[in-house]
């Protein structure tokens, strides 16, 4: 192992979320069209086409393209009239609570179900106060939240319900595409996502009034030429990003097929390794398989998650700790809520176990098999690895 001064297994660094690239010739053709039209942003032809195709794919009335998912979250939160307190999981990317705190709304952190890694509806009910105005669920790893239970809570207490669907593009729950649940759902099309627009995002909703409000707010509140009717900001997606997304849509099935095949190679390669398990995806549902999520049980494997990460990093495999250390342990939240971890035992435990491994079109079966052999070797020599990591 390279940790013990051997040559790294890989000359080129393997990353989690290395971008998928669609058909280059088709992308170049679309870029030529954009340049010929000289319409680079402000609801151009490519953005309009992308929104229409996304709405059709997701089975929703409205899909509004945005410059990124964080701005999409912020605008949707504001359009829904959220204020006071909003319940969110801590086990998520920090953009989720930041989009609330940025607008002086208090994110109230909810614990997760240790089996699904999604927010636990039973914990949500315990966190409700007179100041609660909404719930933001996060469809982690493309496995949707318990939308029915969360919807019931929202309806019972007259709360707004939206979802951070950054991981869940092209995924289903009960055969229904993610995008139409709650009041609205927000997607990320960042470069690290299996489907990307270089940088971008979108809001999906079936609410006509909400969609109209969001469209106003993403373009400074303009309702026609020289007519500003509402406070807004600049959340528009540009034409080049939309063109990249349109090409990606044409390659979507290929991207998913590669991810699924990679997932199966990992499952086979890591089967039977003590203390190492991959999360399962429900075969009856549609999933994008964009994340290879490994849980490391220190007691069973004899090696900690962080030690295994060091082993892989030494081999030029940049495995990642998602979502370490939990949003409640990041600023400003750890200062605002210093004892939040006491209410988040499952979140605290999971932040010490999860390790994400490389996948996507930049990784093939050969590389994956080699990664699995490295993990096996590390577990087989766990005592030596732990001594090396702790003593240097």
TrEMBL record:
Statement: the UniProt record of this protein carries the keyword Transferase: yes
GO MF annotation, one: transaminase activity
Keyword set, alphabetical order: Aminotransferase, Pyridoxal phosphate, Transferase
Stored InterPro entries: DegT/StrS_aminotransferase, PyrdxlP-dep_Trfase, PyrdxlP-dep_Trfase_major, PyrdxlP-dep_Trfase_small
Keyword Transferase attached: yes
CDD domains: AHBA_syn
Short name of one Pfam family: DegT_DnrJ_EryC1
Family: Belongs to the DegT/DnrJ/EryC1 family.
Protein name stated in the entry: dTDP-4-dehydro-6-deoxyglucose aminotransferase
Natural source organism: Geoanaerobacter pelophilus
């Amino acid at each position: 192992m390279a940790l013990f001064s051997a040559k790294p297994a890989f000359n080129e660094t393997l990353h989690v979320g290395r971008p998928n690239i669609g058909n280059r010739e088709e992308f170049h053709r679309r870029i030529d069209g954009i340049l010929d039209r000289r319409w680079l942003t402000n609801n151009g032809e490519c953005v309009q086409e992308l929104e229409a195709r996304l709405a059709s794919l997701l089975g929703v009335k409205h899909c509004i393209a945005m410059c990124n998912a964080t701005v999409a979250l912020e605008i949707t939160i504001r359009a829904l009239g959220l204020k006071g307190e909003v319940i969110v999981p801590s086990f998520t990317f920090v953009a989720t609570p930041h989009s609330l705190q940025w607008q002086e709304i208090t994110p109230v952190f909810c614990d997760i179900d240790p089996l699904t890694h999604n927010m636990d509806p039973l914990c949500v009910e315990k966190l409700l106060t007179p100041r609660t105005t909404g719930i933001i669920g996060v469809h982690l790893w493309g496995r949707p939240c318990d939308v029915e239970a969360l919807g019931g809570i929202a309806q019972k207490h007259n709360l707004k319900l939206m979802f951070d669907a950054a991981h869940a593009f092209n995924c289903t729950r009960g055969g229904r595409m993610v995008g139409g649940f709650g009041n609205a759902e927000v997607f990320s099309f960042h470069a690290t996502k299996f489907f990307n627009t270089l940088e971008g995002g979108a809001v999906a909703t079936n609410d006509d009034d909400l969609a109209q409000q969001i469209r106003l707010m993403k373009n400074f509140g303009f309702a026609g030429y020289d007519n500003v009717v509402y406070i807004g900001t600049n959340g528009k997606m540009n034409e080049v990003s939309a063109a990249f997304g349109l090409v990606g849509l044409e390659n979507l099935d290929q991207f998913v097929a590669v991810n699924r095949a990679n997932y199966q190679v990992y499952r086979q390669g890591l089967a039977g390794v003590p203390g190492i398990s991959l999360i399962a995806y429900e075969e009856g549902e549609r999933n994008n398989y964009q994340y290879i999520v490994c849980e490391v049980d220190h007691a069973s494997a004899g090696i900690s998650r962080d030690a295994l990460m060091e082993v892989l990093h030494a081999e030029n495999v940049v495995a990642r700790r998602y979502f370490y250390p939990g949003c409640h342990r990041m600023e400003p939240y750890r200062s605002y809520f210093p004892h939040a971890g006491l209410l988040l035992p499952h979140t605290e435990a999971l932040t010490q176990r999860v390790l994400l491994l490389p996948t996507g079109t930049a990784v093939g079966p050969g590389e994956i098999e080699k990664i699995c052999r490295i993990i096996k070797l590390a577990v087989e020599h766990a005592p030596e690895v732990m001594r090396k990591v702790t003593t240097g």
